[in-house]
Structures are given as C-alpha cells and as structure tokens.
C-alpha cells in the first residue's frame, strides 16, 4: 500500500538529505520546479524549490525513520491503533541494524525495561542509535547489555543470504521473523505486557504475527518507535552488535569494509575482488543488493 508524506525542509536540511540519498545509491532524475527527485528503497522523493519534500511509496514511513528522524511530516496517515506510546517501565521494544548496509550482518535486538532500568536508561541518554556516535553506542551497549533483559539475532552475510532466500527473497518477511523471534523469547523471560516495534512495512507485519504467536501481548507498531526508551535501547544493542560483526569480518579477511551503501562501497567491492575474488563476496556482502549485483555482472 502506497503512502505519501510531506515535509518542510530548509536549504541546509535539503542539501544534507540529497547527500545522504546519494550515499545510499538512490537514482536521481530531473524534475521541473524541483531541486531533485530521487528513487530507491521503495519510494520516490521529490524536493521542490519551495522547500516542500514529498515522499511517496510503499516504504515512505521506513524512509521517514531512516533519513528524517524525528522531523514531523505535515501530512501523514495515522498509525493503526493510534500513535500513543506506552510507559517505558514494563515494556519491551525491538529494532534492527544493518538492513541498509551492503557489508556486514543483519541484526535484530529486543530489550525489556522495568521501572528501575527505564529510569536508568533515560538518565544515561539512551536514544535512537542513528542519533548517537558509534563510540557512544558501544559504550551504552557495553553497560546495558549486562543490565537489561534482551534477545539478539545476528545473521552474518552467508546466513543472511540463506535466510533471505528462505523468506521468499523478501527482506520485510525476514525482518518480521527475526523481530517476532526476539520478542516472543523475551516476553517469556521478562513477562512484558506490551511491545513497541519500529514499523518497517505499511501492513504492520510484526503486530499481525504476534497476535497469532503471543496472544494477549499489546503491540504498538509505529514509525520512529525509537522515541520509546525500550526500542531506543534495542536500537543501541542492535547497532553495537552490527559494528562488532563488521569488525570481525575485517579481522578475518584483513580488509576495510565501509558502512552504508554509498560511494565508498564501489572501491571496496573492486578491492575485494582483486584480493579474494568475486566468488567469495557472499562471505562479507549482502549479495542481493543492487550495487553488488551490478558489480558482479558488470564489474563496476
């Protein structure tokens, strides 16, 4: 189901967004009266000279979360069941990392908070990992991984590819499975009555699946769920595990692997092929990504 979100950006924010989309390998096309139009990741993004940004497509809300953070849209469909977030105490949250990165694992984490740890997490400055430096993410994760009940699923590239194929070559189906696994297991240990999940698909697949597997669990599946402390904590643990996975691959193969899917990826793919050969790319990269497929087929 397609959605349309409209934002107002100043010149600086518009330039920053354009740069971020280029790094993420969006395709840019000319559009009359627009500063740019870009296509990728299930959306068409148009920034007009007036500063109005229009995001259209089935993954408009996921784009909002990834590229625009807490910036509120002028128009947006209300989240099913409302957008009210529950108190942090007694809740669990889940989030993922590595979904948009060419290299490295896919990670999903879930975290549960009680009254004491909710206060502690908020005082420590737990926030969406995208708003924190990687150094801060690692420091927070090291502290809270021993204090917060949590579940983590890490799929290194080889396992990721097999799981993606098993999920019908559908990333959202794979993400749904991992979120649900984490939340069902964590609920059994923590007794949490509510789960707050970042919505990565318009049809709220995690809530639908949990209704079947965890009856009685209240599920709040909304865009930008990292506003909630439990989901923010999950994003921190997921990001830290992703960074650890990247470090492990770099140590194993003695290469530098860039984060994200922007311009540095091309040279890294070429260097990998020169040193280790194209046939081993699946050991470090997500093979179905368009930039990887283009490199495998065209050599660039």
What does this structure look like?
The protein has 2 domains: 3-68, TATA-Binding Protein (2-Layer Sandwich), CATH 3.30.310; 91-246, Ribonuclease H-like superfamily/Ribonuclease H (Nucleotidyltransferase, domain 5), CATH 3.30.420. It has 300 residues and is α+β, with helices and mostly antiparallel strands. The longest helix has 25 residues, at 229-253. The chain has 10 helices and 10 strands.
Q: Helical percent range?
A: 40-55%
- Side-by-side strand order of the widest sheet: 1-5-4-3-2
State which percent range the strand residues make up. 15-25%
- By CATH, the architecture of the largest domain is named 2-Layer Sandwich
Q: Output mean pLDDT.
A: 89
Let me know the number of strands: 10
State the major sheet. 5 strands, antiparallel
Radius of gyration: 19 Å
CATH fold title of the largest domain? Nucleotidyltransferase, domain 5
Order of helices and strands: EHEEEEHEEHHEHHEHEHHH
Number of helical segments?
Answer: 10
CA(first)-CA(last) distance: 34 Å
The global form is globular
